[in-house]
Amino acid sequence: MAGAVGTHRPVIGVTTSARGGWLLWLFNALATLRAGGRPVRLTSRRSVRPDRLDGLIIGGGDDVDARLYGGDVRLGVRIDPDRDALEYRMLAAARARDMPVFGICRGAQILNVFLGGTLHGDIYEAYADLPRQRALLPLKRIHVLPGTRLHTILGLTRVRVNSIHHQSVDRVAAPLAVAAVDRHGIVQGVDAETGTFMLGVQWHPEFLVFNRPQQRLFRAFVTAARRYGATRTERAA
What we know:
By secondary structure, this protein is an alpha/beta fold.
């Protein structure tokens, strides 16, 4: 079985918006393929049964609906309730099966909300004097907490990342813990440090194509999905 684990290309569900989101999907698909996985696009209009997946990536996109975590509903903010519902269903199925989960930007936020946490609806209101820095280039410096799964994967405590978000994790839900912060104290990473792979990052590693530490995130996730897929096959046999 060890050989099968090494060669199996796990099926990875990647959530995105049904009304666009093609750029995010393409970059996540590319990163997943490079890491050895087989990406499948999931939207509120096109999905697959969770028992056919080996791992779940919750991608970036629109704001998480504030009603899901008891936050203030804001006018002019783009939300996607159908996508929220899809991701809740997929996260519930993944949690019940101990399936690996990787949340990216919005994905980290809705993972935290699904588990019972809350968000800052707007970081520029929550953090005084916060500069408006939004860029796909890795211009933001963050601190990765030693001893976390995120630190083990990246192998670094100081990392430069991109930043295009305006929401962020507020109260962290168990079994997650803070894994990275920026210099303003904004949560930049959360993970479940033991058990099944469950990790969320506030930035977009899929866009950092030539950054080896960032691509290690996808490799670590796909490796966990491959192990899960092998045990899933054993149970079905």
